TrEMBL record:
Domain PPIase FKBP-type: 31-85
Enzyme Commission code(s) on record: 5.2.1.8
PANTHER family: AH RECEPTOR-INTERACTING PROTEIN, ARYL HYDROCARBON RECEPTOR INTERACTING PROTEIN RELATED
Single GO cellular component term: cytoplasm
Species per Swiss-Prot/TrEMBL record: Scophthalmus maximus
Principal EC category: isomerase
Taxonomic placement: Eukaryota, Metazoa, Chordata, Craniata, Vertebrata
Protein name (Swiss-Prot/TrEMBL): peptidylprolyl isomerase
Cellular compartments annotated: Cytoplasm
Cross-referenced InterPro entries: AIP/AIPL1/TTC9, PPIase_AIP, PPIase_dom_sf, PPIase_FKBP_dom, TPR-like_helical_dom_sf
GO MF annotation: an example: peptidyl-prolyl cis-trans isomerase activity
Annotated catalysed reactions: [protein]-peptidylproline (omega=180) = [protein]-peptidylproline (omega=0)
Keywords: Cytoplasm, Isomerase, Phosphoprotein, Receptor, Repeat, Rotamase, TPR repeat
Amino acid sequence: MEEEARKLLEEGIRKKLVSPGNGQLSTFPNGTKVVFHYRTSLCDGTVLDDSRTMGGSSKPMELILGKKFKLAVWERVVITMKQGEIAEFTCETKHTSLYPLVSQSLRNISAGKDPLEGQRHCCGIAQIHSHHSLGHKDLDNLQASPQPLLFTIELLEVLPPGSFQLDVWAMSDEEKLDLVPQIHEEGNLLFKQGQIQEATDKYYNGIACLKNLQMKEHPGDEAWVKLDHMITPLLLNYCQCKLLQGQYYEVIEHCSSLVFKYEDNVKAFYKRAKAHAAVWNETEARADFTKVLDLDPSLGPSVAKELRAMEERIRSKEKEEKGRYKGLFNYNGPPATATTVSPV
């Protein structure tokens, strides 16, 4: 134990045992899955992140050792711990410079967003030296002024290779590509069964998986375009789910991004038209439905049905508003009488 502490200290990591763990120290071969809670603090005690409170879910961190996690120091310190152990690790700046990017991804995940949202197409070091905001003031400050950090870690579980199913993020690029069609089919099945939220989650996972791969390619290159063509049907299915869930503005946003790239994508125009109609954007809805007919005249009956439904909703709304304001400016009623209030 003392020898390990000395090695850590030589590497710029100071370990302080808070609570001992159980049993023997694992050998931690590559492929081992470690599950742990963490709290990240500045050396003045300011807490940046805490897995027990992040996103209100108290979800622990999971790492597969040997997968080249962006924050390598976490892999380095957990292999010095026993299951159940709690320890504090004060790490020099050379180990923490990429923490702002890691934290941004973890915060995105806890908020149900794409973990890569807001990150530029470049390596981690290049992002650190850019002036691109990470969307969090504390992380921007840390990115501008890298400094030592204190990680308090509780090692919950150590799972040897082969004893668990790999999460998507831990898979190789080839494994991810092989998995996406399966995710797509599972989403379609859930949708047919009426399990809309579950289908939404499947489509989202497939999109996130492909976007993760796409971030490694240069926009416009053949590999990037191929991945984008795989993302498009998943995104359209995701939008269909969001239509049923009433998330119309999100549908408009996603479909707008699709028609910007693919001007002949009739499904994107059709779904955006329906979303516009649902939020009373009559002019935009009619323009999109017209575009749908230009691209695919066979959809005439479906478009006519949607237009009739929109017009009926508009008439009902106008009738409701007329009834609501009827009499509001009726000047035939008795005149108002002034009331005199005696001073107290």
